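re the bet — no i am not wrong, look at it urself. input seq straight from the record:
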Amino acid sequence: MTTNGQIIDILHSFAHRTDVERIDEAVHALQQFGEEAVHSLAEALSDDDDYVRLIALEVLGEWDGDTTAALPAMISVLDDPDRIVRIAAVGPVGQHTEKAEDAVPLLTKWLDSDDEHSRLTAAALILKIDHGQQDEMMPFLRGGMDSDDTDIRCLTAWLLSGLRDASPQALPLLRQMLSDGDELVRSVVEEELGSLG
């Protein structure tokens, strides 16, 4: 069996596991293959099995090394038919914001979605990739602050914290969220503000 075949088989062996350790164990099992594993992980992003694509993204997100070779494949998965796989691609693509300008057209499609999570995530990643889109992207994040959904407001706090270097508006908006009516949201905001030192 070729090394690529071995790598894909290892990935398949972890794909349908549900335990928390599966990602760390998959990274550990694949790390020995070095850069060849990154190429195989990129190939796995076109697998028919949603779970294989998902674990490939999760492994790429935790990979201890350069994953630039997989970036075009990771960007293409932003248009995956499965919502969970699309959202999972954001993290690893976001690790390459200086090289991910090709992701912006795909992420722009997300802005028209009825899915608040997708809209917010897309706006934040677009802004990390292109700091010049402040006027276009910050209204989405302001909208997330006013969502009726507590989880969306928590996500907004987390995204604003991650945008503090990309947008001068992010930190003041995050501080505004300290007055949110929900204790969980306030605790997320406090934690994010506390992590800033």
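see?? The mean pLDDT is 95. told u. also DSSP finds twelve helices and no strands in the chain. so pay up
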